[in-house]
Amino acid sequence: MPEQITGPRPTLEAVAARAGVSRATASRVVNGGAGVRAPLVDKVRRAVEELGYVPNHAARSLVTRRNGAVAVIIAEPEFRVFSDPFFEQQVRGISRELTAHDAQLVLLWVEGPGDHDRIARYLGGGHVDGALAFSLHDDDRLPALIGRTRVPAVFGGRPAAGSGQGVPFVDADNRGGAREAVRHLVSLGCGTIAHIAGPRDQTSALDRLHGYRDVLAGADPALLCQGDFTEESGARAMAELLERRPDVDGVFVANDVMASGALRTLRERGVAVPGDVAVVGFDDMASVAPRTDPALTTVRQDIEGMGRLMVRLLMRLLDGTGGEPPASVVTPVTLVRRASA
Amino acid sequence: MPEQITGPRPTLEAVAARAGVSRATASRVVNGGAGVRAPLVDKVRRAVEELGYVPNHAARSLVTRRNGAVAVIIAEPEFRVFSDPFFEQQVRGISRELTAHDAQLVLLWVEGPGDHDRIARYLGGGHVDGALAFSLHDDDRLPALIGRTRVPAVFGGRPAAGSGQGVPFVDADNRGGAREAVRHLVSLGCGTIAHIAGPRDQTSALDRLHGYRDVLAGADPALLCQGDFTEESGARAMAELLERRPDVDGVFVANDVMASGALRTLRERGVAVPGDVAVVGFDDMASVAPRTDPALTTVRQDIEGMGRLMVRLLMRLLDGTGGEPPASVVTPVTLVRRASA
DNA sequence: ACCCCGGGTGGGAGCGCTCTCAGGCAGCTG
DNA sequence: CAGCTGCCTGAGAGCGCTCCCACCCGGGGT
């Protein structure tokens, strides 16, 4: 029980006095107690307890030049980003890992391109030890901006070629997952496999398309349909596909939400899934994939794990004595078999 | 253009030297320049510009005992809280207002009750000037916890009676909105108005129930049905209601999501809305209310505005010379008329 | 002409901490 | 038993800033 609830907060000086040691020794104990003899450690610990001592963060970071805080930069180019369950999971992973590293999460919400200056100033001001950002679109100037500030940073998602040089990223193995999905359709006996692709300006969507092509190099271009990751676009694309190639018997859809739309179209037209057409999605979004009719076979990525990994990479960057160059990480994905394929 | 990109960051001392003034004067200019003659102000400003000087936050807050950061505490008792669009909007409002006040947002994600200690320690550690928290459930121990830390705080949503004493809150006028909704149904000629209520342990749900009762004091208890804010529960409650009182001609539902479920039940049974039964929801959730069939008449609350208001209240608390006691704010709501009532 | 007043400026202390460095006290070797 | 090594401990500087206070200087009153 802390003794004094009110009054000025006790300083290290006070702790030292109470424990009968010097400020230096008290400091050593507070910071782990390495190289201090046990009886003294005990005395200091007790004094800390009794006084309810909490280190003054400002004083500490003034001298250590570290402030134990990491910025999480969230750009909001679209209508809703934050309420995306994907983000929720990633931010949760980040938060948990940050807590494990005793670091704080400072949320930087970018309000459009005009706000970039503010972000740059903040990062440049050294208020945080590092930054975590999400790379969403090709035209996103955030990666470049962060690269320029020279603040240690890690991206979530692979930035478009050339925009985030030197900044490591954590990305799911979109291409490999896509290959696995398509191979699964092949193994099921599908001979005419289509792909409903995501937006051209997102590396994840592009990678999934590339994975499809890796397996089905010579596929008819008519089997490729463009979507924009919305349910509606998935439904439309499926309809178009059915028209162009009525013989289609397998579809790899670039995300679960579009797959849900495609499934709807299929259902409406009385096409049996997976009997007539097998469908595989991507993301294994908890609110979608297990609930579609039939339940969606899809590719799962460990989103929270990716968030945690981002933090671990950043911490390595920060601790790094400058030796090793920080390597980006591509996390494995797994095919989750349900009913649709 | 900052002159030196690399090397140690310039200090105020360097700025002062370059401008040919004392550190004190340089400090005054950096902090607004009050009481410094124009030519000197200019000189210092130029030096700041040329050196790319950015104040050291740690040093500043060491002496001012302010750190320009506010904690936003998010408890997660349920499955998903963060991805709730309600939260998104509120946090966005908070973020914007905080930015306007030049303060940072430190996100504290509470991982269950066991995590309370950590939060308390953090808040008690004086790392932030104040805290913003959301009061969700009656049994939430967060309000009490925050009250004990003595950190200036503001709640979003009214805490349960007795749990967050002395801590001001910002809440929507749930009761008044409910009254308005019910009165609207009355004005439409509805004579048998039911209520589908939200969870008993949330003040917002309770207040809406009270609003209903304010207008319909002697209503048949059979007209009251319990839901839990999910779509499914709304659908079920509506079915029950239809069974208990087939003559029901108006329903006030405690939130839009449940109203959407109720609408579904009504549609499935061929009950005309608003012809046979008029329906009013609550929240005016953008992703729900305008998209239901028929579009939902509901009560709108300015969620982002509430977030901003929370920050403004907190800032007043912080600036407060201790004079006025901080008053909670109940923000007005408006009835949005669409097709369902 | 002298003094006083007040706005502007600079000197310097000190916020609470970490970290280097010198000193002290064992314990061990020669 | 002297000398040396090595481990602990304490003294003190200093991180970059704000703010108090003393000082300076010009203008107005006596």
Question: How do you describe this structure in short?
Answer:
The structure is a homodimer. The first copy, chain A, is built from 12 helices and 12 strands.
Core attributes:
3 domains, Rossmann fold, homodimer, 12 helices, 42% helix, 341 residues, four-stranded parallel sheet, DNA-binding, 434 Repressor (Amino-terminal Domain), six-stranded parallel sheet, alpha/beta
Fourth-tier CATH superfamily name of the largest domain in chain A = Response regulator
Count of alpha and pi helical runs of chain A: 12
Distance between the termini of chain A: 60 Å
The tally of domains of chain A stands at 3
Seen as an oligomer or otherwise, the chain set is homodimer
**N-to-C order of helices and strands of chain A:** HHHHEHEHEHEEHEHEHEHEEHEE
Report the biggest beta sheet of chain A as strand number plus sense, adding barrel if it closes. Answer: 6 strands, parallel
| Unreliable residue stretches of chain A | 1-5
How would you write the strand order of the largest sheet of chain A?
2-1-3-4-5-11
Number of strands of chain A: 12
SS-derived structural category of chain A: alpha/beta
The Rg value of chain A, from CA coordinates, equals 26 Å
Mean pLDDT of chain A: 89
Estimate what percentage of residues of chain A fall within beta strands: 15-25%
Shape-level CATH architecture of the largest domain in chain A: 3-Layer(aba) Sandwich
Shape of chain A: elongated
Work out the helicity level of chain A: 40-55%
